[in-house]
Amino acid sequence: MRDKIVSKASDLFLKLGFKSVTMDDIAGEMCISKKTIYKYFCNKEILIEESTEMVHKTVHEVISTIAAKDYNAIEENFEIRKMFKEMFQVADTSPLYQLKKHYPEIYQKVMNRELDECNKCFKQNIEKGIRQDLYRNDLDIDVYVKFYYMLIFSIKENTSSEKESTKLELQALEYHTRAMATSKGIVELEKQLLKIKP
């Protein structure tokens, strides 16, 4: 039951926002009493913490699945972006922006957790791109990882609209890729951009 509550709460938080979803809403959606929820979670903050952890695990499992497929490094980044867009498209307000605004302590924990995971993913992607001759081999990998992380998370936490955030993230991905790409990489980037043009 505990996992079911976390799962349902995660869905609702991402769709409707961490602030606006109440324990009553979650109980109503699950056709259980609020008392049942309080049996497992003494307050909403604990439920939010567990929900963000569940979302984090799900996201990184999907990223690992995408990374294990036979995509080249640039294609891989576009596939990951597509996955994020599909996962969070239901929300009007960026979940991370809401978390930062209404639950700063939980937000800080989420960011500390994301820092290591994301940096590892970004680094592996750059190394893969260099091996495939899509990214330049003279890159200072750690610096580019840091730049991209700062860019993406600055957008996520400072843009309230999820739609606007998605648009800016695509521009950040293009900017990041162009900065690293070889001529072969530019060709691949243009190919990926064409696929998502309306």
Structure in words:
The chain has 198 residues and is mostly helical. The protein has one domain (54-196): Tetracycline Repressor, domain 2 (Orthogonal Bundle), CATH 1.10.357.10. It is 80% helix and 0% strand. It has 10 helices and no strands. It is elongated. The model has no long low-confidence stretch (mean pLDDT 89).
Q: Briefly note the structural class of the backbone.
A: mainly alpha
Helicity range of the residues? Answer: over 70%
Largest sheet, strands/sense/barrel: none
How far the N terminus sits from the C terminus, by CA atoms, comes to 43 Å
The sequence of SSEs as H and E is: HHHHHHHHHH
Tally of discrete structural domains: 1
CATH architecture field: Orthogonal Bundle
Show unreliable segments.
Answer: none
Rounded mean pLDDT score: 89
Q: Using only CA atoms, what is the Rg? A: 19 Å
> How many strands in all?
0
The CATH class assignment is Mainly Alpha
Q: CATH homologous superfamily?
A: Tetracycline Repressor, domain 2
Organism: Flavobacterium gilvum
Protein name: TetR family transcriptional regulator
Keywords: DNA-binding
Domain HTH tetR-type: 1-59
